[in-house]
Amino acid sequence: MNDEKFSSENPHRYKKPISVMWECTIFCQMNCLHCKANAKKERSPMELSTEEAFQLIDQILEFRKPYPILRITGGDALAREDIFDIIKYAKDNDIEVTIAPSSTNNLNRINLEKLKKVGIDAIALSIDGHEAYLHDSFRGYKGSFEILTKAINIINDLGIPLRLMTTVTKINVNYLPEMFVFVNKLNAEGWYLYLLIPVGRASIKYELEPQEIEDVYNFVYDLINLNVMKVDIIAGGEPFRRVFIMRKLIEMGVLKENVIKFGDLYKYLKKKLLKLVSETNLKKKEIKRVRRKGFGKGIFVAHDGRVYPSSFLPIEIGNIRKARLLDIYNNSEILEKISNPKYLKGKCSLCEFNSICRGCRSRAYAITGDYLAEDPLCIYEPGTISKDINMREFLEKFGITFYTRIY
Ligand code: SF4
Ligand code: SF4
Q: What is the pLDDT of residues 329-387, one digit of tens each?
């Protein structure tokens, strides 16, 4: 029942999100340059209470099995003393739960053991550099790198699945090859990249240029091709789906290599990667495929109960204090528009890849103020490949949609 598509009018829309990201607090002692939560040094009186957090979990249960994953984020999620009870309640109800705490003194053995005890499914930590000077320069919290690496050792000791996340900015982009090797050495099951989107404290001056973004997409394609661990682009990654398919078709001889514009950054990163890989014994991790069938994109519940399409797209579509999440998700006109390529504007409306890409809606909104505007940092010119392949027909023939896992 729940696997059925939500609307016959919009075959791209599903009844439930794959995950509910909950910002359990905006309190955080760190001062990261790129904080999208605009974290504060005090707890907000608007935060969901323990009882309301339980009610949020009850609302997730209304989506019925298989439930959306609960992704707990912050602020510093471990600053909430009730967080273990909340996780236990979700786990007792068979919901998969992950947590992304800050690398503060709360990230200690006692708290990590408590997370293990209540059955956390994975811990996701942010790492912005392979060395202390690079990581700490983002974080505004002395000793953050040391706390992070110590915690990673404990997490590995406890056998909790570890995911590492990196915000890619002008400051660290040149070090992506070193960071990939470092993340692999830290025994992470996956590396998740966030291309900086100017939301909250994240300043546009740290955002990559359009060609640099294309170069990062191409570099990530090479990392995925190494096939040693999961690598994905979580924020700003929609056009990567276009790059992935183009690179595959180039490998198959269907497209010529010159349909992709490789910039200097890509050449630099690739050269460094090849050298590092030849000198390193990379660990091979099992690459798990996340279930997808019947799920739409994730959704974000802010600390005060407001619901947004994502943590990077601060357009309120409801509030769980006033309405059920299931109703908010299924009746939102904004989600409907985001999920259907026919509403896209500019070159994204014309693009032969828009049924699988749609551009980054958060980036469009952050830069232009219009969440349906063309992705302002995608360099692709629609129609570039039309003499070689009819992409719309190709995607339709193979049933590839926005929700298809293509890598
Ligand atoms: S650790 Fe996270 S919540 Fe805290 S300031 Fe940094 S980005 Fe914001
Ligand atoms: S033009 Fe828009 S739809 Fe096409 S690849 Fe770029 S971002 Fe995606």
A: 988 999 989 988 999 999 999 999 998 899 999 999 999 999 999 999 999 999 999 88
Q: Which ligand is nearest to the CA of 246?
A: 2
Closest ligand, as measured to the CA of 102: 1
- Pocket of ligand 2 contains residue 353 by CB under 6 Å: yes
The answer to whether 23 and 75 are in contact (CB under 8 A) is yes
Say how many Å lie between the CA of residue 241 and the centre of ligand 2: 9
Torsion of CA 115, 25, 322, 54, to 10 degrees: 20
Residues in the chain: 407
Interatomic CA distance for residues 392 and 342, integer angstroms: 14
Ligand nearest to the CA of 376: 2
Residue 142's H or E segment, with its range, is none
Strand, coil or helix: 6: coil
What does residue 63 show for φ and ψ, rounded to 5 degrees?
-75, -15
The DSSP secondary structure of 378-399, one letter per residue, reads ----TTTTTTT--HHHHHHHTT
Which residue CA neighbors atom 8 of ligand 2 most closely? Answer: 359
CB within 6 Å of ligand 1 — which residues?
Answer: 28, 30, 32, 35, 37, 39, 74-76, 102
CB-ligand 2 contact for 138 (6 Å cutoff): no
Cα 95 from chain centre? 19
pLDDT in tens, 271-311: 999 999 988 888 887 777 665 666 778 899 999 999 999 99
From ligand 1's centre to the CA of 60, what distance in Å?
Answer: 25
DSSP 8-state secondary structure symbol assigned to residue 42: S
